[in-house]
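Hey Z.,

So I finally got round to the C2E thing we talked about over coffee. Here's the setup:
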Amino acid sequence: RAKKSLKTNFEYYAPEMEEQTTWRLDMIRQLRDDFGERKLQLWYQPQIDLVTQEIIGMEALLRWPSSDGGFVSPAVFVPLAEYSGLIIDIGAWVMHEACEKLRLLNEANFTGLRMAVNVSMPQFRDPEFIDLVKKAIVDNGLAPECIELEITESIVMDEPQLVVDALHELKEFGVKVALDDFGTGFSSMSYLQQLPLDRLKVDRAFVNEISPNKSAFIAETIVTLGAKLGLRTIAEGIEKPEQANFLLKLGCDEAQGFMYAKPMPFDDLMMFIEQHKTT
Ligand code: C2E
Ligand code: MG
Ligand code: MG
Ligand code: MG
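And the result:
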């Protein structure tokens, strides 16, 4: 009887599961091909000092063009790239590309800017990771302090020691470290002690609402926590002036969001920075 019901379940679920698996494998194959053909792009979203309103840097964000003229969301393809291991090669390309673009900005006399680069767990398992980060920085003649690695809480949960050790070595070299999407993962507090952090990124889930409600209290708590730990804080997903004002009053240092600028290709970023400078 047990066997029979098992078989029934199997027959019931099999087509759906197969479809899922096929879809995933198709996506991964396509991603590998497109990456090989240099079709992935890196876009940049400016980051702003809440007090001076100046552009202080940007976050590099992957873009994968799709055949319909749009883009596949990174929320969809980055997990597939992680699952397949492709993120190791893609992430290495991202690091070199981001460093090269920061060098071009410096050469155009836009100096003192910071480039934030997202990093996934599988990259820390790559024995060449630390060296490739250093090489990208050195090859482009950058000050290591201008490169910031963005990691998430979930990254640290997998293999804490591996990540903590790698980050310490990179910190010694000079790069900065930010904890992304803070407050949306698990075990935040214990890792706050172990990780060599420079910045907390307040997730946009907590800046959406500015009236005195739960989100606002959480945003306030994160900003206070950051300040007490000696970390800078940056709020993600700022879409309205009320949100910017609210966070400024809380003592949040920096902001990033559609209100200032959406992620954009490098040439547009150059123009955006140029315009922002002269106005
Ligand atoms: P993230 O690192 O938290 O990046 C911020 C996301 O918020 C970006 O989504 C950005 O476009 C979006 N965003 C910024 N301001 C606003 C706003 O005002 N409103 C709203 N609604 N959204 C805003 P995006 O580009 O789709 O990236 C999603 C995630 O994919 C990133 O989240 C990051 O986790 C991952 N990702 C992107 N690029 C890379 C990469 O090069 N490497 C790795 N490992 N992950 C990446
Ligand atoms: Mg990020
Ligand atoms: Mg984030
Ligand atoms: Mg995220």
